[in-house]
Amino acid sequence: MARVLVTGMSGAGKSTLLAELARRGHRTVDTDYDGLTLPDGTWDEPRMTALLAAEEALVLSGTVPNQGAFYPRFTHIVLLSAPLDVLLARIATRTTNDYGKTPSQQQQIRGYVRDVEPLLRRGATIELDARLPIHSLADTVESLLRAPDPSDHAVAASTLDY
Q: N or C: which end of the chain has fewer CB within 10 A?
């Protein structure tokens, strides 16, 4: 079994993908909602370290500035990506999260797509088109849960942190 991190911009479908994987019986953790993310927007390093030490089979989602420090502890790092217009349209209609509804937040998202997504892409072991049907994305992540480590994640954390 493997540990998989699903990352990507707001509106890419990380939470929806995790919900489908949980429905299929997989252990999932959405760091947007479980208290692993500190008020400054970073992961709580001691709690994250303990979680990853305790879980051999896990799908975790989130996008935070210090996630690169944890990349070596994941077997696969999945980047969910979609064009900016798709992300903004999804955010405008979602009811589970208010982030991205204001013009200033939408401008912030544009900046993240421009500046942060390339860093996420550099650290990803696979990139998935978030416009694909959710069952197809979940099938791919399930196959990763069974797959061996694809490479050494020895990319310097400083090149991944934003």
A: N
